[in-house]
Amino acid sequence: MVNAVCAPSGLDWQGINWSRVNQQVKRLQARIVKATKDGRHGKVKALQWLLTHSFSGKALAVKRVTMNRGKHTPGVDDEIWKTPKAKANAIASLKRRGYKSLPLRRIHIPKKNGKTRPLGIPTMKDRAMHEYSGESVPLIPGESVPPFPGETVPLLPGQICC
Q1: What are the pLDDT digits (tens) for 118-141?
Q2: How far is the CA of 100 from the CAs of 32, 93, 111, 123, in angstroms?
């Protein structure tokens, strides 16, 4: 189970080979960038499909969601993926077919002028689906081509436009 990267039936969070998962996702992202540079849009679409349907993509999405600063903040469903079993179940539950996001949990945070502003907090599953669907796939360091054709490249911290 230690070397398994495809989704085994008895999925174990601690048994996932994270270096291999990261390697597979980076490799697919690099292939997407190369195909985009070459203008092979059919290949880009096929590689995007592979990335968004792979176990590695799902596992990395759940890991990113459960390892960031907002990992202790539940959405409207009051669900948090803390235990390894909950994280493994989350990987198994990420399916694009029939997915419908839940409403945001609204809280109001104070501003400097004494007023408040609304803040929407998505559920853990919605955050993971956002990562998994490729909407927030990061660029490969050193590459200036976005992984999805037709999208603009966001500026990284410290970069200047023009």
Answers
A1: 988 888 888 888 887 765 455 455
A2: 27, 13, 32, 12
